[in-house]
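User: Need the bound-state model for pyridoxal-5'-phosphate:
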Amino acid sequence: MKKVSLLAPGPTPVPPRTLLAMAQPLIHHRSSDFLEIFGRVREGLKKIFKTDNDVLVFCSSGTGAMESSVANLLSPGDKAIAIRGGKFGERWTEILEAYGCQAVNLDVEWGHAVKPEDVAAMLKEDPSIKAVYVQALETSTGVNHPIKELAQVTKDTGAVLVVDAVSALGVYDIPTDEWGLDVVISGSQKALMMPPGLAFASIGPKALEMMKSSKCPKFYFSWAKELKSQGINKGAFTSPVPLFLGLLDIFDLIDEMGLDNIYRETEIKSKAFKAAVAAWGLELYSKENASTGLSAVEAPAGIDAQDVVGWLKNKYAIFIAGGQAQAKGKIFRVAHMGYISEFDTLQAISAIEMALAGLGYDFEMGSGVAAAQKIFGEA
Ligand SMILES: *Cc1c(COP(=O)(O)O)cnc(C)c1O
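Assistant: Bound-state model below.
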């Protein structure tokens, strides 16, 4: 069996010490020891989200928390803007429609960021719109949407801003309270370096107020029920105890590293990788606001990006991601977030070079590795 390298934008590698922290004899989720652990998880999350709001923990993948932000804020028939500049933006529309809400779609060309003034115009034209749903990092295109500016737009309206930061939290600074983000959602398996299975939602005062009149059906993902229960350090249902233990270890690790250092290291890996892309004569799919959390790269003309992804997987057990929907076959995506080192990044670059050469692309072998080494050497 080959050593597996996870270099796709989720799930990302889990630090070995965190894996060991999870490999403990199970304790009961209602024991006093676990209540204490739950309390530390709540406090640790607030530090990473940079908020005094309650941050709820759900046992689900990130989409569960996304769904909860529709079920707990809106009522059937309510209108909400879904900013759709990629696959995850489209998910907002799907969730809204599943709950009988009216999705007002703001379509953004893939590879581009939403313009805050377009959202402002829509809210002005229709003040009955109750929420704006957006991604901090649209993982399918590698683009950051301007969430700070969007919060300025929604601030003085009746609408709440719901930010999907599943792939963004831990990649760049997202000060929830300072920017006035009403709801911020995240998940465990991206920059937070954990296995999949936990989702988070920070809920600000404006969202709490809106929650009171929400009539969408909800049971497992009820914010009111969880706020009451998690307020005394108990999940409403059985908590995934090992994942909580892992998360506490991640908090220690983040404390040791410092959040700002983590953002900066992610930036350097991104810069090095993007220098390699330029050296190959290729282009990023993200035409503006390119994220540092991952790189989305356009495959050379005549080469199917899925073949690059398949080459890495089949020959080297290196997992990168392809494009989704309209970008399928056109792009491949490599993560820089979380527990991925400079040398993991060089490994990805080197493997992609072998794949591109094998697939018949004409370029100078080693040029990407050299360009990235230069960036790492100077950092
Ligand atoms: C990964 C991801 C999600 C959540 O996906 P799950 O498979 O439910 O964990 C949501 N939004 C974005 C932007 C993501 O990158």
